[in-house]
Each structure stands twice: as structure tokens, then as C-alpha cells.
Write a structure and sequence with these properties.
Distance between the termini: 64 Å
Number of domains: 3
Radius of gyration: 33 Å
Order of helices and strands: HHHHHHHHHEHEEHEEH
Strand content: 5-15%
Strand order of the largest sheet: 1-2-3-5-4
Largest sheet: 5 strands, mixed
């Protein structure tokens, strides 16, 4: 198949050429109107940007400098919005609105620094700063052409309007990849904060309802045993024996809670040993294979551990499987995890089985989470995490 482009044809990634049209049609007159308005809007934008930015930067050493600069940049966003509306109406430019600056519940200082560092506002300010000379040129040329160069006016107007379209797209249109990435990071940050808050609430609840309640009851029992120590030694000894059993149960609950936060075996021996320990507690037979040239960063290692741990819990509770397998390996700059089982299938990220939470957790660190679980099985879950090398402490290297 011949893939050589025809000479003069637009490539798939090039900007499509404007369609052919009559010389003095509605689109041409709208372009002429835009070019004549350029001088007015350019002067307004230039004066506003130079005044507010100069005052803000010049007074930055005072209390009002940065707030004035932040408000000035916020005004640049508003001027840019009006300019985009004019470009849509008169030039037919399809340009999206940029992401709004999120204020939310942030305090004054975080809002101030976010507004001063706002890249969208600074691009708008640059647009109005460099547009004044061009606005003077377009107004002058268009006005002269209306009375002197009438036959070539449509071509001149179209050429200058194309430059304006390029300026709007370059400086007033949001950078799709950058804006998308910012939105993703903000969403991921929210997921991480919510997950951390939920984990703290779970730990607090487990401590309150479990070990704490048991230790309070234990203290009361020991107090009663001390009172009976002289008048009824046998009853006191029996109560101390019961308290000893309660101490063992409380210690086991604390160990289980600590394992849920970060297991000691993971810290000491790595993923292979930690996942083997998790597999040993599973109700089905699990084969674990870990092939890693080195240990990843602690945060990545922890996410991998808890991902496999929760997936194996799902296997125990929901799959009715007879066997399962866990494979962990490194592929390039990714840590790969695959958990399979021969159960009845039907697992779904949106079914409330905890898979949605795992997907969000992996997404928060630029990971991937894919579930293949047709009805009747088998179920195969693949997770990818970015590989980051573990940073060793200097004192550990010196040992």
C-alpha cells in the first residue's frame, strides 16, 4: 500500500486549510470587523496588562503588591475570555475555555500564590502585551484597503485574520495536555487525601472498638483482682489468669492492626516474603512468583503489597476458586502485577467489591488497573505501577 502523501496535500497532523469562499461574503466582513476592532481591544488589553503587572511587581515588597498582581492576573483571564468570545463570533475559531483557577476552601495565602503562578493568566498577559503592534498594523492596513486597495481587501483580511487565529490558538487556548495533566493531578491528590483520611478513620475505629476497649476492660478486671487479692486469693488468681488471656488477644489485635498499616515482613524481607505470607493466609491454594532485580521504592512496594493483599481477599470471599496465582515482575520502568484465579468470574470495578478503590489508588501514582473477568471465569487482574528505585540511607550503606 502506497503511503506517500500527494504533493500539496495536508498531512493528518497539519492544520486544515480554510474552505474556499466568495471574496466579499459574510465571513470576510466579519474578519474585517475583527481587524478594525483589533486596535481598540489591543489598546485596552495592553494598557491594562502593563499597568496592573507593573504596579504589582513594583509594589511586591509591600503588603498590597502581590494581591494587586493576583487581581491583575485574574483580570487578564477575564479579558482573555472576552477575546475568545470575539474570536469565536468573528473569526469562527473553535477554542475551549481554560480550566478555572480553583479557589475552593483554600486560605488567602495559598490562593494568592496560586493566582500569581497561574500559567493561564500569564499567557493571557503575554497575548495582550505583544498584540498592540499587530493591532495597529491590522487596523491601518484594513482601513487603507477599504478605500485604496479594495480589490485585494478580501485576501489581505483573510491573511491577517489567519495570524490572529494563530495567536488566539497559541496563547488563549488551553494547552490540552498540560490542562489535562493538571486536572488529573488535582483529582489524584483528592483521591490520595480521601484515602488517607479513610485509613486514619479505620485505624481509629479499630483501636477504639478493638484493642482500646479490651485494654480498658482489662484494667478494670485487674483493679477488681487487686481488691480481692487479700479476701479471696483464689478468685483473684482466676481473674488474673483471665486478664492474661485478654492481654494475648489485645496483642494479637495490635499486631493485626500494625500489619494492616505496614507489615514488618515487607520492610525487612521485601515483596517475595510478604506476598508469600499473604498467600499462606488465603483460603485457596496460591502460587506466588516474584522476579525483581531489586526492591522498588518503599511507597511503590507498599501499594503493590496492599493491592495483592486485597485482591487475594476478594479471591477468598467472592470467587469460589480452587487455586490462584500471583506474578510480580519488572518490565522496563514499570512494576507489573498479575493475579489470576479459576473462580466463577464476574468481577467488576464498579460492583462495589473494592476494585474501584484499588483502581483509584493506582491511578493516584500514574498506575494502571485492568480487570478481565468474564462470567464463568477465570478472573485475571493486571496492575502496573511506575518503577522507582529504592533510596538507601547513608547510614545503611556504611554498615
Amino acid at each position: 500500500m502506497n503511503t506517500t502523501p500527494t504533493p500539496g496535500a495536508a498531512t493528518p497532523t497539519s492544520e486544515p486549510l480554510p474552505p474556499a469562499r466568495f471574496a466579499f461574503d459574510g465571513a470576510t466582513w466579519r474578519e474585517i470587523a475583527h481587524l478594525l476592532l483589533n486596535l481598540v481591544t489591543s489598546i485596552i488589553g495592553f494598557v491594562y496588562v502593563v499597568t496592573t503587572v507593573s504596579l504589582g511587581v513594583g509594589l511586591s515588597a509591600t503588603v498590597i503588591g502581590l494581591p494587586l498582581l493576583a487581581l491583575g492576573l485574574k483580570g487578564c483571564r477575564l479579558l482573555g475570555k472576552l477575546e475568545r468570545a470575539q474570536a469565536r463570533a468573528l473569526l469562527g475559531v473553535r477554542v475551549e475555555e481554560p480550566r478555572p483557577l480553583r479557589m475552593g476552601t483554600m486560605g488567602f495565602l495559598p490562593w494568592l500564590f496560586a493566582a500569581v503562578k497561574d500559567p493561564v493568566a500569564w499567557r493571557h498577559a503575554l497575548y495582550f502585551a505583544i498584540r498592540l503592534p499587530w493591532g495597529i498594523v491590522t487596523f491601518t492596513v484594513t482601513l487603507v484597503s477599504l478605500f485604496v486597495l479594495w480589490p485585494v481587501l478580501p485576501f489581505v483580511a483573510r491573511g491577517m485574520a489567519s495570524v490572529d487565529r494563530a495567536l488566539v490558538r497559541g496563547l488563549l487556548q488551553p494547552s490540552d495536555e498540560l490542562e489535562r495533566r493538571i486536572a488529573e493531578l488535582e483529582s489524584d491528590r483528592g483521591v490520595v487525601v480521601d484515602t488517607a483520611a479513610a485509613d486514619l478513620r479505620r485505624i481509629e475505629r479499630d483501636l477504639h472498638d478493638g484493642a482500646q476497649a479490651r485494654l480498658v476492660a482489662l484494667a478494670m478486671d485487674l483493679g477488681l483482682a487487686r481488691e480481692k487479692l487479700l479476701e479471696d486469693p483464689e478468685a483473684a488468681a482466676r481473674m488474673v489468669g483471665e486478664a492474661h488471656g485478654e492481654v494475648k488477644i489485645a496483642l494479637q489485635e495490635l499486631r493485626d492492626l500494625a500489619r494492616g498499616i505496614h507489615p514488618a515482613i515487607l520492610t525487612d524481607r521485601g515483596l517475595d516474603a510478604a506476598l508469600s505470607a499473604v498467600a499462606a493466609r488465603c483460603t485457596v491454594r496460591v502460587a506466588v512468583t516474584v522476579e525483581l532485580p531489586a526492591r522498588p521504592a518503599e511507597a511503590i512496594e507498599g501499594i503493590a503489597y496492599f493491592t495483592v493483599s486485597e485482591l487475594l481477599q476478594n479471591v477468598s470471599k467472592h470467587s469460589q476458586a480452587r487455586s490462584a496465582s500471583v506474578d510480580v515482575w519488572r518490565a522496563g520502568n514499570r512494576l507489573m502485577i498479575q493475579v489470576r484465579d479459576d473462580g466463577h468470574g464476574g468481577a467488576d470495578v464498579g460492583s462495589g467489591s473494592g476494585l474501584a478503590g484499588l483502581a483509584e489508588r493506582l491511578d493516584s501514582v500514574d498506575g494502571l488497573f485492568v480487570v478481565s473477568s468474564p462470567p464463568g471465569g477465570p478472573t485475571e487482574v493486571t496492575a502496573e505501577l511506575p518503577w522507582r528505585d529504592r533510596e538507601f540511607r547513608k547510614d545503611a550503606i556504611g554498615r
